[in-house]
């Protein structure tokens, strides 16, 4: 498996298992199945509400001697309601307790958006904290403390634009090493890619298949399908691979990590085999031609009336 290399020479497998929307009751089996199929990178987050079940699954895997902890790359993310300096390390400790791990390979700030402590999902203006109250630089200091305490090997962010990255980089003692964002042929974000390359920040592509299993409240009417796209289907047929494999390989060819979610054993295995597909320059050019600026996860759930945050703030 291809890897992304970090400054200290740690290697992150480029293809990981996404666990957003993997339901409790399914996610543990999916993680075990994935590791048996060869996955060595699992992408988690506190807000997915399934880290405790993943922790049980990992323990079973370690006890059965299928892999050792140090052979896995485990990522988790800090939720929006724990952005103050003191809360960050506590939140990481909660994730570590749930995951039954002593350290994470990578810990990310999930969004550049802060909620008041205790608010799981902000619904009214008073549920939010502004970035004047809790600057991103303060949250980043908490992330640095996680590294200093040995509980996170690497730290980074998710859903950050160039301005947000610049803001934390100015006062950072440890530079962010990862930005996990939505990336696929409809949303290729070339400027962000270029900026991150120059700054030695890796990218991870989330929603690479279009995340069609999102709850309806997070969907727009008439969303375009990636898996049903004619160009994607034609390339897939030409290579004897599936549309999902083409989309996963597209991310890998661009040098980004990619975390397709599945809880289905056959699709988990299929997605893993995307590493064996080779796309030509013509294939990549055809896929690049699908750019339309379309976001499946557009962040509008953070911008109810009176919210201190706007879509302009989020995406520039
Ligand atoms: P399932 O978990 O039943 O396999 P994303 O990674 O963009 O969030 O997309 C996840 C969605 O794509 C889920 O609905 C998942 O369903 C589905 N999916 C995952 N792998 C494949 C595949 N190889 N072919 C078709 N759909 C897939």
Structure notes:
With 316 residues, the chain is of the alpha/beta class. The chain has one domain (3-223, 254-275, 296-315): TIM Barrel (Alpha-Beta Barrel). The chain has eleven helices and twelve strands. It has helices spanning 27-37, 51-63, 85-99, 136-148, 162-171, 190-198, 230-239, 243-253, 265-272, 281-288, 311-315, and strands at 3-5, 11-13, 17-18, 41-43, 73-78, 104-109, 114-115, 128-129, 152-158, 178-182, 202-206, 257-258. The strands form three sheets. It has an eight-stranded parallel β-sheet. Strands 1-2 form a two-stranded antiparallel ribbon. Helix 5 links the parallel strand 9 and strand 10 (178-182). The longest helix has 15 residues, at 85-99. It is globular, with a radius of gyration of 19 Å. Adenosine-2'-5'-diphosphate (A2P) binds next to helix 9.
Nutshell version of this structure?
The protein is of the alpha/beta class and 316 residues long. It is built from eleven helices and twelve strands.
Helicity range:
25-40%
Going across the major beta sheet, what is the strand order? 3-4-5-6-9-10-11-12
CATH architecture annotation name: Alpha-Beta Barrel
The CATH class, by name, is Alpha Beta
CA-atom Rg in angstroms: 19 Å
List the helices and strands and how they pair.
Layout: E1 3-5, E2 11-13, E3 17-18, H1 27-37, E4 41-43, H2 51-63, E5 73-78, H3 85-99, E6 104-109, E7 114-115, E8 128-129, H4 136-148, E9 152-158, H5 162-171, E10 178-182, H6 190-198, E11 202-206, H7 230-239, H8 243-253, E12 257-258, H9 265-272, H10 281-288, H11 311-315
Parallel strand pairs: 3-4, 4-5, 5-6, 6-9, 9-10, 10-11, 11-12
Antiparallel strand pairs: 1-2, 7-8
């Amino acid at each position: 498996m291809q890897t992304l290399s970090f400054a200290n020479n740690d290697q992150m497998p480029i293809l990981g298992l996404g666990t957003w929307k993997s339901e409790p009751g399914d996610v543990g089996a999916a993680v075990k199945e994935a590791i048996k199929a060869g996955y060595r990178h699992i992408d988690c987050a506190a807000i997915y509400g399934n880290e405790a079940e993943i922790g049980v699954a990992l323990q079973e895997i370690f006890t059965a001697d299928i892999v050792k902890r140090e052979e896995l790359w485990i990522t988790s993310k800090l939720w929006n309601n724990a952005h103050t300096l003191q809360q960050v390390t506590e939140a990481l400790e909660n994730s570590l307790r749930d995951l039954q791990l002593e350290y994470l390979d990578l810990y990310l700030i999930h969004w550049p958006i802060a909620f008041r402590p205790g608010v799981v999902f902000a619904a009214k203006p008073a549920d939010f904290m502004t970035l004047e109250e809790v600057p991103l630089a303060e949250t980043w200091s908490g992330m640095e403390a996680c590294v200093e305490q040995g509980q996170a090997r690497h730290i980074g962010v998710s859903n950050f634009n160039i301005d947000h990255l610049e803001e934390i980089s100015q006062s950072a003692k440890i530079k962010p090493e990862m930005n996990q964002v939505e990336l696929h042929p409809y949303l290729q974000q070339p400027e962000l890619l270029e900026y991150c390359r120059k700054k030695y920040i890796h990218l991870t592509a989330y929603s690479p298949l279009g995340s069609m299993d999102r709850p309806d409240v997070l969907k727009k009417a008439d969303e375009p399908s990636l898996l049903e796209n004619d160009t994607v289907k034609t390339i897939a047929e030409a290579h004897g691979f599936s549309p999902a494999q083409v989309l996963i390989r597209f991310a890998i060819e661009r040098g980004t990590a990619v975390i397709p979610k599945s809880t289905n054993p056959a699709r988990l295995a299929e997605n893993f085999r995307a590493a064996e597909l080779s796309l030509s320059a013509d294939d990549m050019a055809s896929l690049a031609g699908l750019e339309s600026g379309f976001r499946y996860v557009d962040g509008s759930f953070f911008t109810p009336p009176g919210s201190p945050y706007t879509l302009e703030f989020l995406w520039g």
